[in-house]
Amino acid sequence: MIYSTKTIAAIALLLLLNQAGTTQTAFDLSAQLIARPELRSGYRTLPPPGAGIAFFTSQRTRLNAAFTNEYVKIGLSLQDVRVWGEEPQLADIASFGLHEGWAEVNLGKHTALKVGRQELVYDDQRLFGNNDWEGQGSSHDAAVLKIKYAKSAFHFGAAFNQASARLFGQSDPVGTYKALGWLWYNRKFAGEKFELSLYGITDAFPADVSLHRNTTFFRGTAGPMLHFTSGKFKASTTFFGQFGKDNSDANISAFLGAASFGYTVSNKFDITIGYDYISGNKALRTPATENHSFSTLYGSSHMFYGFMDYFLNLPKDTRSGGLQNAYLKWNISASPRTTIGLDAHYFLLANRVKTDENYLANYPLGLELDFTAIHRVNAFAKAQFGFSAMFGHSSLEALNKVSGGSADKPGIWGYIMLIVHPSLLKVEK
Hints:
Layout: H1 5-18, E1 26-41, E2 54-68, E3 72-83, E4 97-106, E5 111-118, E6 140-149, E7 152-160, E8 179-189, E9 194-206, E10 216-230, E11 233-245, E12 251-266, E13 269-278, E14 290-291, E15 323-335, E16 338-349, E17 353-354, E18 360-361, E19 364-378, E20 381-392, H2 394-399, E21 411-420, E22 423-428
Parallel strand pairs: 12-14
Antiparallel strand pairs: 1-2, 1-21, 1-22, 2-3, 3-4, 4-5, 5-6, 6-7, 7-8, 8-9, 9-10, 10-11, 11-12, 12-13, 13-15, 15-16, 16-19, 17-18, 19-20, 20-21
């Protein structure tokens, strides 16, 4: 008798699950494919005069596996990220990578320890997010101790990175932190109308090579986040302070403040208005020994500061000048399967900055409009369309001098995206 591959896999899994005895056990194997053709002429930076329009298709393919019983949870996510055509024909190029690979062990009724490569997603992803819009996404090699009682949760996490295994000394990682530690406390109260989160985060970086010192500098970030929901009304407020040292040995004194208010007009329409302020340095007034530029750490900035990602990397994208973001968002349920959104962002510098041409950029940066439409095709697939435009001011052009961007015409960006996420195999015992 000949069995199919799926049948053999199911039998093997049933035998594995049977070893758990009477323990409630589950295994889920799923896949994800995202294909996104994009048209770019002003994404991330204003278009230079005479620049051609970019067009390409990116793709992410993931295979996810999850195993759960009352003692342990195991998560595995393998992924391949590519642009169509970047890999030559008949070339033997290894491209699959590990996005997640972790185990969470129950230590007691209220306590668990999660260890391995994992996504760090907290609250609205302002400081910790998975950056799911990016093809590769974000994940961290870390250990997290989790404690949960009723409506309260507490996490203590830590990570320490090395570039390689060594016999002696340290090998500092490139492009990421040396060490990371965080405390997160979350509490729901008043009938779950209020949700409060408290953060305490520290990360460490090797000293900049220009200092010619083998040392590590620590940065701290702390503050509350409060959400309120009642009937048709919702509100959110956030304040984070940042302190310590940056990798150039400057003293950090920075902050981020944000507030938003939303109202559901009907079951098909809601509106949100908000304002973010990210502090920065003052041109010609902030000494080199001080740094007032707030870093948004490891959050999903694409969700907050415009879909065209002009301010994806703060403080770098404003030359440490800080950012003001005033926005208005509309969301419409056009049908049970289709939603439409329109976001308007007006960006300003928090402080005037000095550019390469000794020009102090004024505060206004530009107006960005983001249109999206999402249609659920079926239980396993959905299609998304987006179109955005950036109407930049001369200050944004000054910030874009390195790329030669011009504010004479708006930057545009559009895409069509297909997301397929089926469950391939699910077994429960």
